[in-house]
Amino acid sequence: MNFEAAIVNVSLLWLLTAPHEFAHAWVATRLGDDTPTREDRVTLNPLAHVDWIGTALLPAITSLFGGGFLGWGKPVNTNPSRLRWGLNGLALVALAGPASNVIFAVILALAAVLLFRVAPQVAEYAAKGVQLSLYLAIFNLIPVPPLDGSKLLLAAKVPYVAYVELARFGLLLLLVLLTATPLGRWMSLWSLQATELIFRVVH
User: Fold this and answer.
1) 3-state SS string over the chain?
2) Angle of helix 120-139 relative to helix 86-115, nearest 10 degrees?
């Protein structure tokens, strides 16, 4: 059991969840939906975006036992009927989260490079955040509710009944994918390769 990985991953997830969910909320408001504003989600305060199962319990368990990494923030509610471009607007809102993870990964990489000599432990923590942020970007694109990728199914006009049925077993399906298939290892490898690429660019 990897207690250090569990502590680091959960603390970093709290740090990374805020800009991810804020990005969803901000894009939704820019597209005309005031739901995130009314629910106080257009904020970088991490407490506004915490889902205690997805942001604490499951990431701790999956990190502890080395079965990939499973975690998410509290979903931002949006009303497609209020969004400019409807379901296509919903797809943009969904993609804003993973995009924010990529942007934040670059910011963390720059911080790690700048702090390497003066605060090596902080730099190491930031460097781990780069890979986790990229991992979350990839993970959230899996088309299974409650992840962002599932909204792309709606934009692709998948029958809503089928989406609801998928949502019923979404959490179980994600657990199976991460524990019984090599998907978790693949995502870790992809995020590591992307991390190395970013550090080669910013170094």
Assistant:
1) CCHHHHHHHHHHHHHHHHHHHHHHHHHHHHCCCCHHHHCCCCCCCHHHHCCCHHHHHHHHHHHHCCCCCCCCCCCCCCCCCCCCCHHHHHHHHHHHHHHHHHHHHHHHHHHHHHHCCCCHHHHHHHHHHHHHHHHHHHHCCCCCCCCCHHHHHHHCCCCHHHHHHHHHCHHHHHHHHHHHCCHHHHHHHHHHHHHHHHHHHHC
2) 160
pLDDT tens per residue, range 83-95:
999 999 999 999 9
To the nearest 10 degrees (0 to 180), the angle between helices 183-202 and 120-139 is 130
- Beta carbons of 87 and 154 less than 8 angstroms apart: yes
Give me the amino acid identity at 130: V
pLDDT tens string 176-193: 988 889 998 899 899 999
Residue with tokens 């962002």, as numbered in its chain = 148
Given a contact cutoff of 8 angstroms between Cβ atoms, the answer to whether 63 and 5 are in contact is yes
C-alpha 51/C-alpha 56 separation (Å) is 7
Catalytic residues: 21
pLDDT at 71: 78
Contact between 37 and 22 (Cβ < 8 Å): no
Residues 6 or more apart whose CB falls under 8 angstroms from that of 201 comprise none
Q: Can you give the pTM of this predicted structure?
A: 0.90
Domain ranges of the chain: 3-202
